[in-house]
Write a structure and sequence with these properties.
Length: about 140
């Protein structure tokens, strides 16, 4: 497994994120979901649902299962694995604690889920106002 160089960014403290809870943060325009599962270490995931990009922080977290508010896809927040549907998965970031501070490792190289101002393929919204994943293999980019 190749190691990806990351830049560690302090995103919150343990005063902001309690056990059994989650927190949405933004780093350089990227939405990140922090989760502190019961019985597990803090996790960081890409903050937009892999289905149709709804903000995961608006979902429900119960017994370490995150249910997206968009269309109720469910994810195990300890592994990031999809529960319903099983073939989905949350994209994760590395996390480390230093004292009271929570750091997330932001990959330095281009990531297919990340968008920046030079991205030639702008996000678009579906009829419900969700961002549509234009880089998803199942949805070819309509902008070419
Ligand atoms: S946007 Fe999350 S389930 Fe559809």
């Amino acid at each position: 497994m190749s190691e990806v160089a990351v830049e560690w960014v302090e995103v919150a403290t343990l005063d902001d994120l309690w056990c059994g809870d989650m927190l949405g943060v933004e780093v350089e325009g990227e939405q990140i979901l922090l989760v502190y599962p019961n019985g597990g270490a803090i996790r960081a995931y890409h903050g937009l649902c892999p289905h149709q990009q709804a903000l995961l922080i608006n979902g429900d977290l119960e017994e370490n299962v995150l249910t997206c508010y968009g269309h109720h896809w469910q994810f195990d927040v300890i592994s990031g694995q999809g529960i319903n549907p099983r073939n989905s998965r949350l994209s994760s970031y590395e996390v480390k604690l230093e004292g009271n501070s929570i750091y997330v490792g932001i990959p330095k190289m281009a990531d297919t889920n990340r968008r920046d101002r030079t991205d030639p393929c702008p996000p678009r919204l579906c009829e419900y106002g969700y961002r549509v994943a234009t880089t998803d293999r199942d949805q070819p980019c309509p902008y070419g």
